[in-house]
DNA sequence: GGAGTGATGTCACCTGGTGTCATCACCCTA
DNA sequence: TAGGGTGATGACACCAGGTGACATCACTCC
């Protein structure tokens, strides 16, 4: 076997992405992924907690960048304008990996199990954003609510962005969505 | 065995709730639940799609009642005021089953797997609310965003409500939270 | 060149989940 | 009142995800 060959994690990710894409998530076996990567089922589970997690590697990076954007916002910024900055950071990350993100999204959308995992990742992201907002002096309740509005807008914009034939930049879609959300909230 | 004894589904639910509460979700086996209910593992899976689903029986009812509240809202109502009505409906449901809801919540909070399932149920609820808003003439984007704001507020209020020593009514907590959300959105 | 170390393989095992068929309780009808 | 039909359940075999324990290999460093 490919013992000791480097990049086991990356090989496993690529194998999983390929197989999930080719024949579907449910129809793919962990043993098959491992075989394609020249490894063993046991080794797969040493790198990824479960069969789903392999698709969400890198979500911490998005989280970190959004948090960093909030930390870097001007002192006078309101909660929602810091959310706007975080969304800009997300935009940069999405744009730079557009095709990967698109494939990944199609796979996730095809499986109930994967959507569950996606939702809890979003929830974790919201928690991180909440903490970042609190660190910037936003009070607890407002931090929670603003962070959730942020992930709502991100999710909404993401869905529009991934299969937009015009390839409108994520940043623009997200900004419009955020503006729309404010409008709806104010009109109530 | 208790063949033919009625209420198999209810017996399974009660057994599951009891065992999850006593010894934890992960430490409970489906075979054990079935045994406690006087049934078989195979029968458990005839009533519930999986080990998690047994805790979410009745979530369709909440959905229906919130949708009904939107359908019954006055013609002049804004998207967010219809969300308010839906939250009132949710409040009624929560209050009438407070202790069950609390136990269930503690169990869900203890397990990652169960939180995932909870999140996808919330997402399904948001989709139903979105459809109801659209049926009331709210445009697509606004319906999606308002519905998500609604589940955000519901979730936020729910967390405060379940372990509030003062037993403040859910309705009041939710209304305050909705007001707070509007305030944050407007201040941005 | 040999000891140590960390990544991998091997194997056994548990549990969630499903397909298939037998079996039982109950109802209906002659 | 016997017998057939029907739907719920049991029994059994099986697959895949996931884990613990231990052996084994490649590589490094002395």
From TrEMBL, chains A, B:
Residues 6-66 form the HTH tetR-type domain. It holds the Pfam family TetR_N. InterPro entries: DNA-bd_HTH_TetR-type_CS (IPR023772), Homeodomain-like_sf (IPR009057), HTH-type_TetR-like_transc_reg (IPR050109), HTH_TetR (IPR001647). Keywords: DNA-binding, Transcription, Transcription regulation. Residues 29-48 bind DNA. The keyword Disulfide bond does not apply. The keyword DNA-binding applies. PROSITE patterns: HTH_TETR_1, HTH_TETR_2. PANTHER family: HTH-TYPE TRANSCRIPTIONAL REGULATOR RUTR, MYCOFACTOCIN BIOSYNTHESIS TRANSCRIPTIONAL REGULATOR MFTR-RELATED. This is TetR family transcriptional regulator.
């Amino acid at each position: 076997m490919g013992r000791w060959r480097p990049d086991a994690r990356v090989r496993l990710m690529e194998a999983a992405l390929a197989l999930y894409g080719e024949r579907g998530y449910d129809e793919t076996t962990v043993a098959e992924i491992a075989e394609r990567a020249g490894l063993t089922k046991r080794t797969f589970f040493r790198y990824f907690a479960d069969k789903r997690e392999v698709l969400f590697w890198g979500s911490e990076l998005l989280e970190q960048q959004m948090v960093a954007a909030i930390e870097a916002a001007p002192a006078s910024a309101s909660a929602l304008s810091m959310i706007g900055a975080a969304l800009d950071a997300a935009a940069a990350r999405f744009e730079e990996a557009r095709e990967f993100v698109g494939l990944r999204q199609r796979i996730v959308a095809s499986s109930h199990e994967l959507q569950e995992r996606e939702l809890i990742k979003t929830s974790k992201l919201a928690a991180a954003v909440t903490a970042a907002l609190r660190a910037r002096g936003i009070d607890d309740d407002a931090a929670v609510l603003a962070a959730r509005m942020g992930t709502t807008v991100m999710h909404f914009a993401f869905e529009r962005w991934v299969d937009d034939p015009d390839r409108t930049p994520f940043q623009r879609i997200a900004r419009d969505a955020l503006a729309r959300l404010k409008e709806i909230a104010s009109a109530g």
